[in-house]
């Protein structure tokens, strides 16, 4: 999960002026509505600006009551990778909250449109998603049009799980839905990764992913709970991550600057490196640009990552030169671990600059343009523009010099040194994860990073 700066507002409202205010600001993406003595009041949510509910006068929505904690819960909204919004609620109270009648305590849950959120012995809110999904979905619940906020959720029973049509993410090989573990006393929310199994080789790839996940236990690695299958699909039930994916987060948070601030990029990078260090200690390379703080999606992962492989996989934008060469020359091999380090370098460059290090076309006027580019480049059928420029991008990755614009990077000499070390073309000379963790950019603030890591990652596991 990614955590960001706080700040939003709460406004008591009538139906008419509430409706007007929503249309005045496209940044308002969700609201929690309650009725107090005949008057509608709403907790208004904007992207990446959490709102607090509690007894403390500094909370965004203040409730007086014996059973209400100082800060009872925190509400957040982030962009969904598929369009629309993901609304979550972090309970931090003594007495918990109730989601659709089920008690929740000391955990994070996702709120779907129409869900009821009750502060015990106090107020009940109804969640309203204002944004609707923008992209067409293809997956388990076909034929379902893009989900409208006013449309009721559809569900499907898979083993002991109730899978909903709320899509948390999708790609060429899988779709991730919100699901509930009905055997759990609190109907624990989980993520259901759904993959169609048309061929026997598909099943082998999926079982390889399951085998890898079952061997891993780390705060920055997505945890597996269970698996199910039927004639058409394989289902992997995983730890729920409510913060969205990293690149959607970057575009949403960097509305004005087009990039993250150095401190935030450093904390994200630190978590990524710790997760990769754990994977590499298990001789597993991730080989995909999916750091979440937790790292997820192990469909491309490779055990025995110190060995060379002919199997090239991953998004072209994040492949190292040796991986690009191996795409077009089948006899060439490359090693997984250095590939992970190259991808980490690309991610760090993007976080700090808002552009791809080898693709001039990835510097955009707005985060919406960048989000559209990222989504198109990861789609099963890439945009025509992306296809036309892929050969040029490959050539730049193989032969191009790393371009550091002086107006930005001159102020970040230690970060620039780390990026340069990770994006070395010869993988034998490329910085390792250990090298990165010992770089001056990380080491100079290692104590602060460790404290933040314990407070925001370990304490929330």
UniProtKB/TrEMBL annotation:
Keyword Nucleotide-binding: yes
Domain Protein kinase: start-end pairs: 162-442
Coiled coil: none
Ranges for region Disordered: 1-23
Keywords: ATP-binding, Kinase, Nucleotide-binding, Transferase
Residues annotated as binding ATP: 193
Gene Ontology MF: a single term: protein kinase activity
PROSITE patterns per record: FHA_DOMAIN, PROTEIN_KINASE_ATP, PROTEIN_KINASE_DOM
Gene3D superfamilies from the UniProt entry: 2.60.200.20, Transferase(Phosphotransferase) domain 1 (1.10.510.10)
InterPro entries: FHA_dom, Kinase-like_dom_sf, Prot_kinase_dom, Protein_kinase_ATP_BS, SMAD_FHA_dom_sf
Record domain FHA: where: 51-104
Family from the record: Belongs to the protein kinase superfamily. CAMK Ser/Thr protein kinase family. CHEK2 subfamily.
Name of the molecule in the record: Kinase-like protein
Species, as recorded: Mycena belliarum
Top-level taxonomy: Eukaryota, Fungi, Dikarya, Basidiomycota, Agaricomycotina
